[in-house]
Design a protein that fits this description.
- The protein has 432 residues and is α/β, with parallel strands linked by helices.
- It folds into two domains: 1-325, ANL, N-terminal domain (Rossmann fold, 3-Layer(aba) Sandwich); 329-431, GMP Synthetase, Chain A, domain 3.
- Helix content is 31%, strand content 25%.
- Helix 8 (182-195) runs parallel beside helix 9 (215-225).
- The longest helix is centred in the first third of the chain and has 22 residues, at 12-33.
- The termini are far apart.
- The chain binds adenosine-5'-diphosphate and zinc ion (ZN).
Length: 432
């Protein structure tokens, strides 16, 4: 179902008009109410009047994550505090978290974005949607919750964790949709397999996001859970999950461009890149008033496809996110993303998607260790068998990534499972 056909299927020409109107307003709002934006625009010699249409967006300054940290907690808010109805904060592993403030209108729009995604995944008011993203400052839980509520579905707000109870409720209440990170979905799938209750579940679709995942992981989750698995994308700075989502075609993540204007830039030259080219995703919020963001550099690497989708939606489609530029490991001069490793591992039926990368520098040489779990049924104490799996996977990793990892096959269930965003790599060189 298309939740809002008027917007999701509008002609590109009308969309452009709407984006232009909205950009003019939001730039003025940011300039007049956020000293940070006034200063940045003044420095560039750009006045709100210089922004007449969406084509003028390139005149605007960029915003980066450190700008949000430096303006902690609320200096980027553009409305009086009484108009803020919600706060969220992103995890921020180091230093201060990033705080986002939303007006009632912003929360409505966010819910609309998420409802559009859930509807595109086939959900309706007939569904019971289990939200197993964490509730709290993290945008995942409440974001999915509000979207499902807007759709009129029944929400089962289990939050993340307490896996046995999750599965019991999933079975007893007949959840038809599951919202969580792909890593947690994999963990749930493993537990469901162990309990042998897959056939008792009514799950039809999964809304997975908040971290990079691959096509091979999609296959794994669809097989294990007997569902259709869809991508949902978002970030706290721009609102939360539901900035975009896949449709039934599973051929790119539609971004809700009437609300969030995307650009792809070269992260080094900061110049916009031609359509289809891989680069850094940048967003301008066109209808967010509590904390408007102008040209926010997400550090997420992807590409955009403007060709019309078979589903009838006209909104642009984003490719899978390879990772954030800061997830990239440079090992012996070669760029490696954990998502590439995941994709290769899952090509092999003997392995499952549980892995952990450790990078270090010993005697001036980078070390690159990958711990990976074999599926229980393939694991044995027979070292000849283990060697066979190991050399096959190593050879494939070398051909895809370009360097040789030190691969270690570890016992099933020995890699820590994640309830939220999984941590797939540790770069010890950064700790030195
Ligand atoms: P934090 O920055 O603390 O992780 P967020 O929850 O705001 O907090 O994280 C947003 C980021 O999560 C995005 O910028 C992106 O890197 C990642 N992300 C979210 N959804 C997806 C997705 N569907 N695919 C890949 N990465 C995603
Ligand atoms: Zn589509």
């Amino acid at each position: 179902m298309i939740f809002n056909p008027e917007k999701e299927c509008m002609s590109r020409e009308d969309l452009r008009k709407l984006q232009s109107e909205r950009l003019v307003k939001i730039v003025k709002h940011a300039y007049d109410n956020v000293p940070f934006y006034k200063k940045k625009m003044d420095e560039l010699g750009v006045k709100p009047e210089d922004i007449q249409s969406i084509d003028d967006i390139v005149k605007l300054p960029f915003t980066v994550k450190t700008d949000l940290r430096e303006n902690y907690p609320d200096k980027l808010f553009a409305v009086p505090r009484k108009d803020i109805v919600r706060f969220h904060a992103s995890s921020g592993t180091t230093g201060k978290p990033i705080v986002a403030g939303y007006t009632a209108h912003d929360v409505e729009n966010w819910a609309e974005g998420t409802a559009r995604c859930l509807a595109a995944f086939g959900a309706s008011d007939e569904d019971t949607i289990q939200v197993s993203y964490g509730y709290g400052l993290f945008t995942g839980g409440l974001g999915a919750h509000d979207g499902a509520t807007k759709l009129g579905a029944a929400v089962l707000p289990t939050s993340a964790g307490n896996t046995a109870k999750q599965i019991m409720l999933m079975e007893d209440l007949g959840s038809t949709g599951l919202c969580c990170t792909p890593s947690y979905a994999l963990f749930l799938a493993e537990e469901i397999e162990k309990l042998g209750v897959k056939d008792k579940l009514k799950l039809k679709f999964g809304a997975f996001g908040a971290e990079p995942w691959t096509e091979n992981m999609r296959k794994e989750l669809e097989d294990k859970l007997g569902i259709k698995a869809y991508d949902i994308y978002g970030l706290t700075e721009i609102s939360g999950p539901g900035v975009g989502g896949e449709c039934e075609c599973q051929d790119g993540t539609h971004l809700w461009e009437d609300m969030f204007f995307p650009e792809i830039i070269d992260p080094v030259t900061l110049q916009p890149l031609p359509e289809g080219q891989e680069g850094e995703l940048v967003f301008t919020t066109l209808d967010k008033w509590g904390m408007p963001m102008l040209r926010y550099r997400t550090r997420d690497l992807t590409h955009l496809n403007y060709t019309k989708c078979k589903c009838g939606r006209t909104m642009v489609r984003m490719g899978r996110i390879l990772g954030r530029s800061d997830d990239m490991l440079i090992i012996r001069g070669v760029n490696v993303f954990p998502s590439q490793v995941e994709s290769v591992i899952l090509e092999f039926p003997e392995f499952q998607g549980q892995y952990f990368i450790t990078v270090d520098r010993i005697n001036n040489v980078d070390t690159f260790q990958i711990d990976v779990e074999l599926r229980e049924e393939f694991y044995s104490e027979n070292s000849a068998d283990m060697e066979k799996y190991k050399s096959a996977l190593t050879a494939r990793l070398i051909s895809v990534i370009g360097i040789k990892p030190d691969l270690r096959i570890v016992a099933p269930n020995s890699i820590e499972r994640s309830m939220g965003k999984a941590k797939h790599a540790l770069d010890k060189r950064k700790l030195q």
